[in-house]
Design a protein that fits this description.
CATH topology of the largest domain: Pnp Oxidase, Chain A
Number of helices: 8
CATH superfamily of the largest domain: Electron Transport, Fmn-binding Protein, Chain A
Number of strands: 9
Number of domains: 2
CATH architecture of the largest domain: Roll
Shape: extended
Helix content: 25-40%
Distance between the termini: 118 Å
Radius of gyration: 40 Å
């Protein structure tokens, strides 16, 4: 009786059997990425050596490998129907923004001069309005913003000093008409920021100083330098060809607004006698 000679499985069948052996313990896993590359003999031997029962779970559990464990879609749903655990704090909705008239500010005429002096000392910049001398807008108001200082940090004078150049239009205006108005807003103060009040809101105090602009005398040059350069150190490096010089305002009128309605007229005596007080 002739014995039928056994046939070896072909290469394609061997490949399918090898894939089946590899995938059978990988139930519950999905391919999250796939890459095709040419497999060299060294890589083929490494894969054959790694395809064992001991190393396969480690390969499948690696978060950076080709395989990641899959879960049913229900496992990803939020457990909204379950009650919160004991002791868990309930999420509270954020408090509503305060009302329009919920910011009481201390008033009284006796406090106004101190608030005005505070704004004059705390402000690093202001808006200066002049009477234009430009040929296109003669006699019309002309405004510009520029850095100011009423003295070093530890010495408030209430007199605003400026560092300007003759090439600026406002200087040309002042040569013909030295009268000007300086607006100092409280936008840099703490009240508007803490209470989330718009800087243009009337509850943000604003000070308007009106007076005559003059060049600083030689006797005051050193103090003007201390006043401006201590608050604005970069001014020391401004280009010299622009012929910078110091000016100051001889304050004649003081107007303060810190609430809805009109402005308060503060006398010069009260203004210069007062001690800076936060608005």
């Amino acid at each position: 009786m002739s014995r039928r000679r056994g046939r070896r499985p072909g290469p394609r069948l061997s490949w399918l059997l090898w894939c089946g052996a590899l995938l059978s313990p990988a139930a519950g896993y999905v391919i999250v990425s796939s890459v095709s590359w040419a497999v060299t003999n060294e890589v083929d031997e490494e894969l054959d050596g790694a395809s064992t029962e001991e190393t396969l779970p480690a390969l499948l559990g690696d978060s950076g490998s080709l395989w990641q464990r899959s879960f049913p879609a229900s496992a990803h749903k939020e457990d909204a129907h379950l009650p919160p655990p004991e002791g868990a704090a309930r999420a509270r909705s954020p408090p509503a923004p305060p009302g329009m008239f919920s910011y009481p500010r201390e008033g009284g005429t006796r406090l106004r001069p101190g608030i005005a002096r505070f704004l004059a000392h705390a402000s690093a910049w202001g808006c200066l309005a002049t009477v234009s001398a430009h040929e296109k807008i003669p006699g019309l108001p002309f405004g510009t913003c520029l850095p100011i200082s009423d003295g070093p940090f530890d010495n408030s004078t209430g007199i605003p000093f400026f560092y300007v150049t003759p090439k600026d239009l406002l200087v040309a205006d002042l040569m013909k008409n030295p009268m000007a108005s300086l607006l100092l807003p409280e936008s840099e103060g703490e009240f508007c920021r803490k209470n989330i009040v718009d800087p243009e809101d009337p509850r943000c105090a604003r000070l308007t100083l009106t007076g005559r602009m003059v060049a600083v005398s030689p006797e005051e040059i050193e103090f003007a330098k201390q006043a401006m350069f201590s608050r604005h150190p970069v001014m020391r490096k401004w280009p010299r060809p622009y012929e910078w010089f110091f000016m100051k305002m001889k304050v004649e009128h003081i107007w303060l607004q810190k609430w809805y309605g009109g402005v308060a007229d503060i006398s010069r005596e009260e203004y210069f006698r007062a001690v800076p007080r936060k608005a």
